[in-house]
Amino acid sequence: MGRKRKPLLRDLVGNLKDTVSLTKAALLSNPNTSMAVLRATSHDPSTPAHEKHVSALLSLGHGSRLTASSCVSAIMDRLHNTHSPSVALKCLIAVHNILRRGSFILQDQLSIYPTAGGRNYLNLSNFHDPSTPESWQLSSWVRWYARTLEQLVFTSRIVGFFLSSSSSFSYKIKNDKSTMEAEEEKVTALSNAYLLKEIGSLVGVVEEISKAPDYDVLKGNGLVLEVMRLVGEDNLMTQKEILVRLMEMRERLGCLSFSESVELVCVMSRLKNCKRLLMFLTLDEKLRSGDLLLGLVGEMEEKVKAGEGFGEETRLVGRGKRSESARLGGRELSRSVDLVRFSSGRMETWADSSCY
After folding, report:
1. Are 46 and 222 in contact (CB under 8 A)?
2. Among 301, 126, 125, which residue's Cα sits nearest to residue 208?
3. What are phi and psi of 23, to 5 degrees?
4. How far apart are CA 164 and CA 102, in angstroms?
5. What pTM was estimated for this model as a whole?
6. Of 135, 348, 142, whose CA–CA distance to 247 is shortest?
7. Which of 278, 144, 319 shows the shortest CA–CA distance to 214?
8. Could you tell me the superkingdom of the organism this chain comes from (predicted)?
9. Closest by CA position to 41, among listed 86, 96, 106
């Protein structure tokens, strides 16, 4: 009996804390902000926040910048002060929903939090709740989800837009040829060095997603299912962004330096090593995105290893004596390359593809 009553007691205590917090929030200078955050991040152990509570939270971004800043600060305070993995997951889901559906000022406030920035700004690497087997397992989801969101924000800074945003996701999933061509035009203007930087960072998102904890113990948990849904869409979006950039890089294989070729091989190897690359995708999307992506990686690896990824200058050097640093085992830093627009046959290839 004791083991069964302990989670129930924790739930009662959690609900009591929510009631007290809501009462205190009503007395604060920003009661609407505090109450919206508390209602979207309640102690309910397995059910995501109701859509009306999420909408109320997001509506705070349509006011002043001060209100948006207070909203983000309240979420982060709630996240960093809770010991409940359920509350922590709901806070992270709230952060994710801001990235996906929030107004510009909400997203802006989130992207610069804290002021110093950094890769570990959610700071949940030590989060754990050992009170029950389920809470221990949920804690691993909190740590993983935080790392994934951190990588997502970091990558979004590099590519120049939020990967999770609903506007970006909608046109990438639909067969919007004109919009996709506009996106591809932006990619063609990138230097080799920056294009490789974007690909590497995008692969970093897939790598984090592929490290998701075991789901078997938590089957049926609504919070985990919601996290999987949100991250699954990010996975699909990220793979499509990688695909666009790799197709552009395929057109440039003949003008890559040796160090750029090595970096390309390394980043493609990282992508292939994501054993659970397709875990969040439906069968149809696997066939339309994941298989095409891995097929392209295999094709490009063969070309690079056959020497097609080396520019003329590098090939001439390669016929003579190669230095130790020129071997595949000794990775060099890519040289900075001036921005230049490459003519590409990728547009026709993309138009003929049934991927989108």
Report:
1. yes
2. 125
3. -65, -45
4. 10
5. 0.76
6. 348
7. 144
8. Eukaryota
9. 86
